[in-house]
Design goal:
Helices cover about 40% and strands about 15% of the residues. Strands 2-12-11-3-10 form a 5-stranded mixed beta sheet. The radius of gyration is 30 Å and the shape is globular. It is an alpha+beta fold and about 750 residues long. α16 crosses α20. The structure holds nicotinamide-adenine-dinucleotide (NAD) and zinc ion (ZN). Zinc ion binds next to loops. InterPro entries: BRCT_dom, BRCT_dom_sf, DisA/LigA_HHH, DNA_ligase, DNA_ligase_AS, DNAligase_adenylation, DNAligase_N, Hlx-hairpin-Hlx_DNA-bd_motif. It comes from Kineosporia succinea. Its cofactor is Mg(2+); Mn(2+).
């Protein structure tokens, strides 16, 4: 995960230009968030950079200054903190943070600090919140002033925004006098809501949450509507003597201060999904950082790294600070997850279910670890409202493994050559009418619009595996009306097939043979073949394994579906609705003799039994701990209950016997497969390997982490292999793994 941004040495004119560009970009960045509005003078050039580009520029400047200290100018971003000075003097300078970009750089930093202190400090590690720094002054428990960071010495008074910020109460739970510092930001939800509001009020939407928060904050003075924001605190400090009242204990460590903030009613990252870690070694810090990066996309708000700080005030005092940043803390920067690029084309796609979605083709840009060329857009109505244009400079977000998304456009960067995006008049797939009654447009023909694609998908190797039904045959089957939905495949007869072009007896027999075999495919594959909106292969497997039978799946309501790992309150009702729509197709499949059960899968019943067994085991352990005396008192009753339990446990054990990847505690083992398979597993696709793992009671995962139980790899050398070795995770060859699963092969 390391990202090296080595700086380059610039020529003197390039250096001066770089400093000027960085300053202009900063002004923009800390301005209103809607570039154009920040520039009163229309003729002024607007410099908008994404953070990755800005950071690269600053690195180049730093490397150049190291080589030519005499070139350094006062305005260099390496010398000064962020934005413009305001008129409120800070109680103590609001500093920036120095950065590291890799585990090795962090270890070096730790070595340096340990040397300075003469010992390895205890650390607190927390998210680097991607918002704006804010100082909040409380006098005797009442919020009296909010100040931006400004140039670090003087900030701007933004007290007027207080009511819009959650996490910063107007009144603390105790009447203390103190200053709280932290980050004000727009959560993902708040960003979406903010743009809805802005559009409804004929204001320009924000480009992304990070750029939006400056505008949200400043604009709250004159705006007629309120844009809610969120605050997370990361520091408590004393106020000057002019502020009367009881003060907090100044010898508090950082972790204790975070706790105090929580008690006072101020929110911190400790109670956010990001959490905070206290760690005695730099390795433990790194572990938190790795784990935080893995969870980055699921936090609900933007982070651009982690911050590592010495916990004790004594360590901090001894380490001290430079004019720009403290020496007792460091920011571990994550690779950029959003970059600016150009929107080149909008492609309208019709999905398997007939839903029409716009997809953006952008000028290729490296973001979130890969080069992105395509990104999802909002739904068509949003597109029209946002007024996005072809040729716009757009922000592409790719966090974690999720599909890249366009967050917004920098309207101020328009040159006049942009062109409007044309929405389709008719269905781009069949030329038929579009149903625009819902937010998501859909072809009026629904699933039948994309029927050939749906059938192709259903007969593919990962679903029913009817390989002899190729693309041309599917076309013919659909065109002749023999197939009107995916289930019709199972109703095909020899006579019907023989009437088709280029279909002889041998081919027809082959097709029918494969169709016959497909009838006994596991439920998970049939569920995948149905193309239920909101599910794919792995979700279908999870659903099939959880319920065990199609009857149980169809009987499930949204609440029951939500019990399946990965199905949330948004997805569950969609799946229910889809299954209702698909009921006639499912009924056809049932009548055609297609299997409606997941073989060898314990399903929900055993899942419930597992939970009960685990509970019983815990109770027994507790009883044992409570001492024999009490257990004796309940003697008779306990024996009777115990007998029933033992019987249930025996049933469970029998059921689990062919679940070699279920751990003793009933939890699935997490298995990662890498590289080419060999031996008995050589012919299996990755999807088939995943199926096998799940059938064996395990969980397949794409990346190695602390929680991985097993890595399957034919040879060493890959990064997953090395990571597993480092973490001491069991590694098996495909042959060894096949041996472990022999009861299932
Ligand atoms: N795109 C642009 O044009 C542009 C211009 C200027 C700055 N920037 C961005 O701003 C950043 C650089 O500016 P910077 O000086 O604020 O440095 P920084 O963001 O690298 O680090 C310091 C800041 O981190 C914040 N922070 C978040 N979580 C924190 C935590 N848990 N503990 C302590 N502080 C925390 C605070 O606001 C603090 O002031 C970079 O990310 C840069 O990309 C971008
Ligand atoms: Zn259509």
């Amino acid at each position: 995960m390391s990202q090296t941004i080595a700086g380059r040495t610039l020529s003197r004119p390039d250096y001066e230009q770089a400093v000027a560009t960085a300053r202009a970009a900063s002004t923009q960045y800390y301005g209103t968030g809607e570039a154009a509005d920040a520039v009163a003078d229309e003729s002024a050039e607007v410099t908008v950079l994404d953070d990755a580009t800005y950071d690269q520029l600053v690195r180049d400047i730093a490397v150049t200054e190291a080589e030519h200290p005499e070139w350094q100018v006062q305005a260099s971003p390496t010398q000064v903190v962020g934005g413009d000075a305001g008129d409120v003097e800070h109680s103590a300078p609001m500093l920036s943070l120095d950065n590291v970009f890799s585990a090795a750089e962090l270890a070096d930093w730790h070595a340096g600090l340990s040397k300075r202190l003469g010992r390895g400090p205890r650390y607190v590690a927390e998210p680097k919140l991607d918002g704006l720094a804010l100082a909040a002054r409380y006098r005797q428990g009442a919020l009296v002033q909010l100040i931006t960071r400004g140039d670090g010495v003087h900030g701007e008074d933004v007290t007027f925004a207080a009511a819009a910020i959650s996490g910063l109460p107007a009144q603390l739970s105790r009447p203390l006098t103190l200053e709280v510092r932290g980050e004000v930001m727009l959560t993902d939800e708040q960003f979406a809501a903010a743009n809805e509001l802005r559009l409804a009020n004929a204001d320009r939407p924000f480009v992304n949450p990070r750029n939006g928060v400056a505008g949200a904050l400043r604009g709250s003075k004159d705006r007629t509507y309120v844009i809610p924001m969120t605050f997370f605190a990361y520091q408590v400090l004393a106020l000057p003597e002019t502020y009367p009242g009881e003060r907090p204990d100044e010898s508090l460590g950082y972790s204790a201060a975070i706790e105090l903030l929580g008690e006072l009613g101020v929110s911190t990252a400790a109670t956010s999904p990001a959490r905070i870690a206290v760690a005695d070694t730099i390795e433990a810090v790194q572990e938190y950082i790795d784990e935080l990066l893995a969870r980055r996309a699921d936090l609900g708000f933007g982070i651009d790294g982690a911050v590592v700080k010495a916990d004790s005030p004594a360590d901090r005092a001894q380490a001290g600070s430079s004019s720009r940043a403290p020496r007792w803390g460091i920011a571990f920067k994550f690779p950029a997850d959003s970059r600016l690029t150009t929107l080149e084309e909008v492609i309208w796609q019709v999905g398997r279910t007939g839903v029409i979605t716009p997809r953006a083709r952008v000028k290729p840009v490296f973001v979130g670890g890969t080069t992105v060329t395509y990104a999802t857009l909002h739904n068509p109505n949003d597109l029209a409202r946002q007024g996005l244009m072809l040729g716009d400079t757009v922000m592409v977000l790719r966090a974690g493994e999720v599909i890249p998304r366009i967050e917004g456009a920098v309207v101020s960067a328009r040159t006049g050559s942009e062109t409007p995006i044309e929405a389709p008049e008719v269905c781009p797939n069949c030329g038929g009418e579009i149903d625009r009654s819902q937010e998501r447009w859909r072809c009026r023909r629904g699933r039948t619009c994309a029927l050939p694609q749906a059938v192709r998908y259903a007969v593919a190797r990962d679903c029913w595996d009817i390989e002899s039904v190729g693309e041309k045959l599917v076309r013919q089957l659909v065109d002749t009306g023999l197939v009107t939905d995916v289930a019709d495949v199972f109703a095909l007869t020899q006579e019907q097939l023989l009437e088709l072009d280029r279909m002889g007896r041998t081919s027809a027999a082959k097709v029918l043979g494969e169709i016959e075999k497909a009838k006994s495919q596991p439920l998970a594959r049939t569920l995948t073949a149905l193309g239920v909106r909101g599910t794919g292969r792995s979700m279908s497997r999870r659903i099939a394994r959880w319920f065990g039978s199609m009857d149980d799946i169809q009987a499930a309501d949204a609440a029951a579906l939500e019990e399946v790992d990965g199905i949330g309150p948004e997805k569950a009702p969609v799946i229910v609705e889809e299954l209702i729509e698909l009921a006639p197709v499912i009924e056809k499949l049932r009548r055609a003799g297609v299997s409606m059960a997941e073989p060898g899968v314990p399903g929900r019943v055993v899942a419930a039994e597992r939970a009960a067994a685990a509970e019983r085991a815990a109770e027994r352990a507790a009883a044992a701990a409570a001492g024999d005396a009490e257990a004796d008192a309940d003697g008779a009753a306990a024996t009777a209950v115990g007998a029933v339990d033992d019987e249930a446990d025996a049933t469970l054990a029998a059921l689990l016997a062919d679940q070699p990847l279920t751990a003793a505690n009933g939890k699935p083992m997490s298995v990662v497969v890498t590289g080419k398979m060999t031996g008995p597993l050589a012919a299996l696709s990755r999807n088939e390997m995943n199926e096998l793992i799940e059938r064996a009671g395990g969980k397949s995962s794409g990346s190695v982490s602390k929680t991985t139980s097993l890595l399957v790899a034919a040879e060493g050398g890959s990064s997953k292999y090395k990571k597993a070795q480092d973490l001491g995770i069991t590694i098996e060859t495909p042959e060894q793994f096949a041996e472990r699963l022999k009861s299932l092969l």
